[in-house]
């Protein structure tokens, strides 16, 4: 079952405690695109039902011009050509949404976000895995299929917060609480047993919801030297298959 990004966004918006974690998101239109890039300096245009980072377009303001890119392709355009440049990267068969760009934290020069692998083998959701996804150099998406790789979340957060253990522990606690709330909320609307939640952490430490995938991949966790989380994920997958297939 593929759940569209906009449906999940609207479901999470209904929960007042989650609203502060949701970046501004709308169906794309020329007026919204121009307003948002003026407000936030960068925006992301995403296919409603895309996965793996495929088809994500970024537009960012650089003084009086805009850089529009998808994958490793880039275009520099003026304001009058912005929407046309975005459309040149879109697929006619897809619906797109426009989302506020985030100033994600960096690890060794590359942006990163956080993947939380949630599973519900019985009656309660559990966090089976949690890792940082680090983008390939000069990429603006962190997905494994786009060259991203997994790192220990603890190590990456210590790097971001200058080895301040208290700040790291605080963010880990918030990430955990937020992940349970997101999984529970989406599960109220959809019958799911697994959920991959992607959260962004800005340089300031602010946490944002990016995406939730009801068919998460586990390759990220196979890249980590410690296989404990991968083993937990696979054990719960087998249990879910046994109990509910």
Automatic annotation (TrEMBL):
Residues 15-241 form the ATP-grasp domain. GO terms for molecular function: ATP binding; metal ion binding. PROSITE patterns: ATP_GRASP (PS50975). Keywords: ATP-binding, Nucleotide-binding. InterPro entries: ATP-grasp, YheC/D. The keyword Cell wall biogenesis/degradation does not apply. This is YheC/YheD family protein. It comes from Paenibacillus sp. SYP-B3998.
